[in-house]
Amino acid sequence: MFSLAKTNALRPALLALGGSLAIAASAQIQVPMQPVPMTMQSLVVLLVGVAYGPRLGAATLLLYLAEGLCGLPVFAGFRAGPAALMGPTGGFLLGFVPAAALAGWLAARGWTQGLWRSAALFLGGHAVLFAFGLAWLAVLAGPERAIALGLLPFLPGTALKSALGVALLRGLRRG
Which of 99, 160, 164, 175 is buried most, with the most CB atoms less than 10 Å from its CB? Predict the structure, then answer.
């Protein structure tokens, strides 16, 4: 029989597991591009941060990364292992943690209310992802190639995913 204390401790663990599974599923929805695929992960990462808050959001992303490092095929293209973090997508994967934390922090301060604040939340979260991703990609390929391969092709998709995130938040508020 569960006590109330055990149930309260179980809830965040189950939420983190569910969030990590959602992120893993979103990693498989992709447009194959080289060297970094375009996936739906960034949208789900930011939504997890918004829904879970900064601490549980970041913890969920740490769980996701640990799952991948342990060999579970949760990264894009069903990849797993340390090589995925050392490759071109590594910076983006590591950037998921602070991006979710930022989204959760902003959401806790009312940034999901209003069109422009919600848009700023999603664009800011994506900016964190790009900062981490491009920094690592620049180490591997040089700054110019990092911008050409890891930023410019992703701007339209980032705008679309940010708009979708805003629309989801607005729809949830009305429903």
Answer: 99
Contact 49, 112 (CB under 8 A): no
Domains of the chain: total? 1
pTM: 0.93
Domain span holding position 129 = 4-174
**At how many degrees (to 10) do helices 155-174 and 115-141 cross?**
150
Give the pair of three-digit tokens for residue 92.
């983006």
Q: What is the band of 175 on the pLDDT scale with cuts at 50, 70, 90?
A: low
Residue 132 belongs to domain with CATH number: 1.10.1760.20
Half-sphere exposure of 101 (CA within 13 A, CB side): 11
